[in-house]
Amino acid sequence: MTLSQMVPMSEPCPDGDGPPLSNGPSVCVNGRCYRLPARPVAIICLDGCDPAYLREGLAADELPAIARFAATGFLGEADSAMPSFTNPNNLSLVTGLPPAGHGVSGNFYLDRTSGETVMVTGDAELRAPTVLAAMADAGIPTAVVTAKDKLRAALAKGLPIGPLGLAVSAERASEARQASHGLGDLPALVGREAPDPYSADLSLFVLDAGLALLRGGRARLLYLSLSDYVQHRHAPESTEARAFMRAVDARLGALAAEGCLVAATADHGMSDMALPDGRPNVLFLGDLLEERFGTGAARVICPITDPFVRHHGALGGFVRVHLGPSAPARAELLTFLAALPGIALALPGEEACARFEMPSEMEGNITVIAAPGVALGARAVEHDLSRLAGERLRSHGGLAERRVPFLLSALLDPVWLATRGPLRNYDILDAALNGTKARP
Q1: Kind and range of the H or E element at 434?
Q2: Burial profile 73-93: b = 16 or more Cβ within 10 angstroms, e = fewer
Q3: I want to staple 387 with a disulfide (CB 3.0 to 4.6 A). Which of 211, 271, 310, 327 is the partner?
Q4: Residue 222: closest CA among 263, 161, 163
Q5: Residues of 16-34 as b/e, b for ≥16 C-beta within 10 angstroms?
Q6: Which contacts of 111-117 are long-range, i.e. CB under 8 A and separated by 24 or more positions?
Q7: Per DSSP, which regions of 304-377 are E strands?
Q8: In whole angstroms, what is the distance from residue 252 CA to residue 226 CA?
Q9: How far is CA 225 from CA 170, 204, 308, 351, in A?
Q10: What is the pLDDT of residues 311-340, one digit of tens each?
């Protein structure tokens, strides 16, 4: 099914996904039916929140709201979509699909037709409708609040901006306008100016905006997408990370206290990719391929690249290799790449798409995934590592950063859980709206 539609809950989902639903109306989007929430629901993408951040805080008894949710609701782990980057996974969360279904598998890609690189900053590549837009169309006041503005347009695709739909970002809070965003003065609503984009407060501003919208009766369904600034800079056991998680926990507790069902997951985890002496542990594949096969044999694309590269230097655990005009047979390059220390997988692009449910349009001729603790880059001159400012490189994109938390403030129905198989982060809306015993 490519378009959302309204159906009575007594009818099965038109695409037959899961058991028939009951007890009220629903919308069906991309093969899943979702109950309309009768009470507020907040879906939160804890950007970069590796499960270790929750484990650390829970062990120290510093996260009372999350501990309560774990005791009376549900706390587990799920797999994120591959590659484990921000854009693909946020779009998976709001469509309920892997990247092969919605069309976006990176923040940055090479357009094979034009030969130009493209930054994914809007909704042009998104080819599936979102649950958020369907809910607003069904009369549910729906709000999207993102930390970074790069996600706002894509997440709000199809959302009817107005009384039933609003979409704003913390990064550009002062630019919010009633006609284009559904809200005219976001700083006034939150009670403070927009924070520095490179700060922990960018994420807290998103959560505070969600709370203000909830208390003001502006939204019954909230999608709140945070920033991974803290996780890129600070390990789970650090003082800074623990303080940030305490602040997040307090806001999750405040949302629940307002009568909101809280459902949180992450787009990806986070790994330390530095050597014991603190230097980044990087394989610059573009340089290695040029040295072995000559100039023009291959071009390496780092799909983690986005407007916010200061904290990761456009280095992550996943890259794509496009063969150039002077390239040898692909099998020769695959053999060379697979033998490099620090490489977990080097696959033909079509095989990677089939294995990891990625769209072919953004894939290269070869897909390369790093081993844990290793970052992949293109050519050294293309990455400004001085911007790490002496911090250890922490990044994501590979299989090692795929596991993420899966948290709900209400108890999951065992029947729902048993019929879904291994949890994926993009099951979070299904879990919140259909799988909880205390129906939203």
Answers
A1: none
A2: bbbebbbbbbbbbbbbbbbbb
A3: 310
A4: 263
A5: eebeebeeeebbbbbbbbb
A6: 112/322, 117/301
A7: 318-323, 343-348, 366-370, 375-377
A8: 13
A9: 10, 10, 15, 31
A10: 556 899 999 999 999 999 999 999 999 999
- The pTM score is 0.93
Residue in the structure block whose two tokens are 């291994």: 422
Counted residue by residue, the chain has a size of: 440
- Residue-wise pLDDT for 84-138, tens only, equals 999 999 999 999 999 999 999 998 899 888 888 988 877 889 999 999 999 999 9
CA distance 253 to 409: 9
Tokens encoding 230: 């803290």
Preceding omega of 83 cis (within 30 degrees of 0)? yes
Q: For the chain, what is the largest distance between any 2 Cα atoms, rounded to a whole number of angstroms? A: 65
Given the structure tokens 């099965």, which residue do they identify?
Answer: 12
Exposed, middle or buried, 220 (CB in 10 Å: 0-12/13-18/19+)? buried
Assess whether pLDDT exceeds 70 at residue 9.
no
Read off the tokens for 253: 């507790």
First to last CA, the chain: 25
Task: Tell the residue number behind the tokens 């927009």, with chain if given.
Answer: 194
Q: Distance between CA 335 and CA 99 in Å, rounded?
A: 27
Confidence of residue 6 (pLDDT cuts 50, 70, 90): very low
Do 246 and 200 form a contact (C-beta atoms < 8 A)? no
Domains of the chain (ranges; CATH) run 5-100+122-271+401-435 (3.40.720.10), 282-395 (3.30.1360.110)
Q: Six-digit token pair at 18? A: 């899961």
Read off the tokens for 317. 């655990």
